[in-house]
Amino acid sequence: MIAIIDYDAGNIRSVEKALTALGEQPVVTRDKENILAADKLILPGVGAFGGAMERLHQYGLVEVIREAVKKGTPLLGICLGLQLLFERSDESDGVEGLGILKGEILKIPDSPGLKIPHMGWNSLEIKPGTRLFAGIPNGSYVYFVHSYYLKAEDTEIVAATTEYSTHIHAAVEQGNVFACQFHPEKSSEVGLQILKNFISL
User: Could you say which of 85, 114, 115, 171 is the most buried, measured as most Cβ atoms within 10 Å of its Cβ?
Assistant: First the structure.
C-alpha cells in the first residue's frame, strides 16, 4: 500500500491522480495505523513551512512520520514535503522542521530578470547512480513552483541540482528517505518515471 500523508496539503489530489495513472491505488490518510502499515509513504505539500508544521503537529503526524522512517519505510517528500524533512526554514523563523535530514531551507535570492516564486521548467543535473533517477537522462526538465530552496548540510545526499538565481539542491536521497523540490506529478513523462522508480524501490 502507498499512503499519501494527509495534512490538508494543496497538491494531494494531483499526486493521487499521477499514482492512479501508474496503476496504483494510493490511500490518502492521516491514520497512524495506516501510515505505519504502508509499504511506501508520500509527504506532499504546497504552502508555508510554519503552517504545514503546525498542521502536522495538530494531526499528531510528526512522531508517526519519524517512526515510519526509523522502521525503514521508503518516504518521498514532494515540494514543501521536501522542505519539511529538514531542520528549519527562512520562511518561518523559529519553527522546527521534522529534522529527519540535516540542512536548511533558504529564500531564493533576488536576481535581475528572474521572477520569484520560481515557477516553470528547469533542467536537472543528476548525480549518477541515484535510485530516484534510474533511467532518466541527465539534463531532463521538471516543473518547479517555489520561493525557498534547500541547502543540505551533507552534499552526499543530493541526488539532483538545478540553477535558478542560485545553486539549488533539487532532490535528495538518504537510505529510505527521498525528496524532490520539484513536482514529479506535474513533470510529464520524466515525473511519472521518477514516481515509478520510487514505487518499485
Answer: 171
Provide the CA 78 distance to its chain's centre, in angstroms.
Answer: 2
Integer CA distances (angstroms), 10 to 58, 69, 83, in order: 17, 23, 15
> Which residue among the candidates 79, 118, 146, 169 is catalytic per the annotation?
79
Verify whether residue 16 is a known catalytic residue. no
- The catalytic position among 67, 169, 185, 189 is 185
Prediction pTM value = 0.97
Architecture of domain 2-199: 3-Layer(aba) Sandwich (3.40)
Cα first-last separation, the chain: 13
The predicted-structure confidence for 6-43, as pLDDT tens digits, reads as follows 999 888 999 999 999 999 999 999 999 999 999 999 99
**Does residue 79 have an active-site annotation?**
yes
Set 118, 146, 169, 183: catalytic member: 183
Active site residue 185: yes
